[in-house]
Write a structure and sequence with these properties.
Helix content: 25-40%
Number of strands: 28
Radius of gyration: 29 Å
CATH architecture of the largest domain: Alpha-Beta Barrel
Number of helices: 23
Structural class: alpha/beta
Number of domains: 3
């Protein structure tokens, strides 16, 4: 049985409006009910009974405290304290679990958000002490940080399962088994219907007696049918103000919703379903501006927020039903709330907030391409610059691509080491300089990524790496990919340069396991190498470098998920940025690895199991995109902790990137440009469960191979799409680079 929980949010009023909104949106996205203080008049004593009843029916109480104490009660037994403190005391008295979120004292706020009255300052100090006593307090600095911490703290409390909540009664559940349900329904002013059809007559009646009708949902298709009374009531009602808020059809959220429907078994079904929805949305637009002639005003907007529920507002009631995974919404239960209930007020504010931010129009371009709903042509890509310093490496990892004879290929060049003639060093430095100028002038701040082979293996490779780093003063972000074995030696050889770049550098260090035996199998190294890697990591961590571990998911290390969790614990203990788990990239199925499609699917399954383990442990869950763009979607979990060294709140992340394209793949289809579609390595008409994943390398970066070949993709060697910069002057490099970068102007992403 699925429980829902009501969460009361309390704070001072004017100074924390934005922060309360973020907290409300977070709770709503968790499929729970936030009750905001906006529907109460804090200075009106007559409202206190309503507030008490609302707290009584709430499962959790959240108090947000900043640097204002708030309005003070002037009469009665609570004279001298603020209304916020009064609510807090009542929640404590009634035994409602309290989650306290207090702003860090170091945060600088505008004068209007800081208490100036000395008496109130002292009262605020005392209130903070009361809020901290007997519970864990979360400290925050920004609204976004507050929202994240609300999500984590509330999830942990809900997992304890100690609150009654209210239960969406199923047909096979006896009424007596959920004694809390009726009580909750009465307190919330709620009525329940088995489905949307059962609620139609009441909705029609409401519209007849209302002056406005607000709708939020997927497509609004149920209101296009002339045969149903609801559609007729809307069209025939004069002087009705109508607002339709429907899903933006090209958003990632609509793809998620469709993929969870049982009728979408493959890409063709997905495409057909989407086209139906897109057609309904366009028809709704036509209906709004052609058929609704009697309405006083009609407006249609498009939102991209997570698709959680359908909302229908009339002057009398709110009707709401959830979008349940794998279930048609017309079959889902509908809940009705009275216009004067806290729930109505809360969701109306939620609707209005999204309405303000929603898009007013759809793209006018004709939709013709297959899988067109996955393409967002209003998305622009800024590539990073990748420099492959060398081809050789002091490891022989099992997951690195091999030739048919078993000989390892030269790093990112994907060709035999013996065939590689290294690029002129001066040309590389010229490229680094010219790329930074172009990006700084025309695009976002540049990212430089240095890799290999192993860029710190051997004195010559280290010299080349140091020369590149010394040319990178204009870069705001530098990523160095290394196995960590030679980092201590490299640092000691040129400590001044390393220290100068430390604040903008991220060290990406490969470490697939902490198990010595598995490590030797995976890396082809001798005993003791693992210890050298760990020493390098710990040395860099003590020097305050930002470090992220790269973990390649293989059958060896994901077979025991505790092995992965130990890596995460190692990262937390050493105060690293975190770890990133990646599956091998087969470059569109054109590079052979020692993994079958079945093994890839098994790895994806194990990563799903890992996600469940991390959820159970209560880590904050996020979805993010690689390289700060919409190229590759990743699943991220965050461990929040306090660094005993500086007593500051810190976080360590575990990120999962699944390149496989099995039915269990976590990563959806990735970013493509016009260039990528034409690429010979891009498989045409790839089926979702074929085991082949189109490569997105060319959209994420411009890559310089160790042999001097510069292109959007390391696999390309043809003169049309790749240039050799080995003997080029800076001006020629600049013009050639400009030509390549123009291919990024019309990128989109397939989600």
């Amino acid at each position: 049985m699925e429980k829902k929980y009501q969460v009361f949010i309390s704070s001072t009023f004017d100074d924390l409006k934005e922060e309360r909104q973020k907290a409300r949106d977070t709770i709503l996205s968790m499929y729970q009910f936030p009750i905001g203080m906006e529907m109460f008049s804090a200075a009106d004593e007559e409202q206190w009974n309503v507030i008490k009843e609302t707290i009584d029916s709430s499962d959790y109480y959240i108090v947000i405290i900043a640097q204002r104490y708030g309005s003070i009660i002037e009469h009665g037994v609570d004279k001298g304290i603020s209304y916020t403190q009064k609510e807090f005391s009542y929640a404590k008295k009634k035994g409602v679990p309290i989650l306290a979120f207090i702003i860090n004292d170091s945060v600088l706020l505008t004068a209007d958000k800081v208490e100036t009255d000395e008496i109130k300052k002292e009262k605020l100090k005392e209130f903070k002490e009361k809020a901290k006593t007997g519970r864990v307090v979360e400290w925050w600095e920004t609204g976004d940080e507050l929202a994240r911490k609300v999500a984590v703290a509330l999830s942990k409390e809900i997992q304890k399962g100690k609150r009654p909540g209210w239960i969406r009664a199923e047909s096979n559940v006896e009424k007596d088994s959920v004694p809390c349900a009726d009580e909750k329904i009465m307190k919330l002013g709620m009525k329940k219907y088995p489905n949307l059809l059962a609620a139609y007559n009441d909705i029609v009646s409401d519209i007849t007696d209302s002056t406005f009708f607000d709708f939020m949902g997927l497509q609004g298709a149920n209101f296009l049918r002339d045969s149903n009374n609801l559609s007729l009531a809307i069209k025939e009602k004069s002087n009705l103000k109508i607002r339709y808020l429907v899903q933006y059809p090209f958003s990632d959220e609509i793809r998620r919703r469709l993929e969870n429907l049982p009728e979408c078994l493959n890409d063709d079904d997905l495409e057909e379903k989407w086209r139906t929805i897109y057609g309904n949305i366009k028809e709704l637009k036509r209906e709004c501006y052609v058929e609704y002639r009697k309405a006083e005003s009609v407006e249609l907007r498009y939102f991209s927020n997570p698709l959680v529920f359908r909302l229908l507002f009339t002057q009398k009631h709110l009707y709401m039903n959830y979008y349940e995974k794998g279930k048609n919404t017309t079959q889902c239960e509908v809940y009705r709330y009275d216009y004067d209930s806290p729930t109505y007020e809360t969701y109306q504010m939620y609707f209005n907030n999204i309405w303000i931010k929603a898009q007013h129009s759809l793209p006018t371009k004709k939709i013709t391409a297959k899988y067109s709903f996955l393409k967002d042509r209003y998305f622009q890509v800024t590539p990073s610059l990748v420099i492959n310093v060398c081809a050789d490496c002091d490891m022989n990892c099992s997951y690195c691509p091999k030739e048919k004879n078993g000989q390892k290929l030269g790093g990112e060049n994907l060709k035999s080491i013996s065939q590689i003639n290294y690029c002129n060093m001066q040309a590389i430095k010229n490229l680094v300089k010219e790329f930074s100028k172009h990006i700084l002038n025309d695009r976002d701040k540049p990212i430089l990524r240095i890799t290999g082979g192993e860029p710190l293996f051997g004195s010559e490779n280290r010299k080349r790496t140091m020369a590149i780093l010394s040319s990178a003063e204009d870069y705001n972000r530098i990523v160095l990919c290394t196995n960590g074995i030679s980092f201590i030696k490299a640092y000691n050889e040129n400590s001044r340069l390393w220290e100068g770049l430390k604040r903008k550098m991220l060290l990406k260090i490969s470490l697939d396991t902490l198990n010595e035996e598995k490590f030797q199998i995976l890396t082809g190294t001798k005993a003791g190498t693992l210890e050298s890697v760990k020493n390098g990591i710990q040395f860099a961590a003590k020097k305050k470098f930002r470090i992220e571990l790269n973990v390649v998911a293989t059958k060896e290390n994901v077979s025991d998920l505790e092995d992965i969790l130990k890596l995460f614990e190692f990262s937390i203990q050493n105060h690293l940025v975190g770890i990133k788990i990646l599956t091998v990239n087969d470059f569109g199925g054109n590079v052979s690895f020692e993994q079958t499609i079945e093994e890839q699917a098994n790895i994806s399954q194990k990563l799903e199991e890992l996600i469940e383990k991390l959820r159970l442990k209560g880590y904050e869950e996020r979805e993010v995109f690689l390289n700060d763009n919409k190229g590759i979607k990743m699943k991220r979990f965050v461990c929040h902790y306090v660094d005993p060294g500086n007593e500051q709140d810190e976080e360590c992340t575990l990120t999962i990137v699944d390149h496989h394209n099995s039915s269990l793949s976590l990563t959806p289809r990735r970013t493509f440009s016009e260039f990528c579609i034409k690429c010979k390595y891009y498989p045409k008409n790839v089926k979702k469960d074929s085991g082949i994943k189109p490569c997105a390398t060319g959209v994420m970066s411009l890559t310089l191979r160790a042999d001097g070949l510069f292109s959007p993709c390391r696999l390309l060697t043809d003169s049309e799409n790749a240039i050799n910069i080995s003997n080029m002057k800076p001006a020629v490099i600049r013009s050639s680079m400009d030509e390549l970068l123009r291919k990024y102007d019309r990128c989109w992403y397939e989600s």
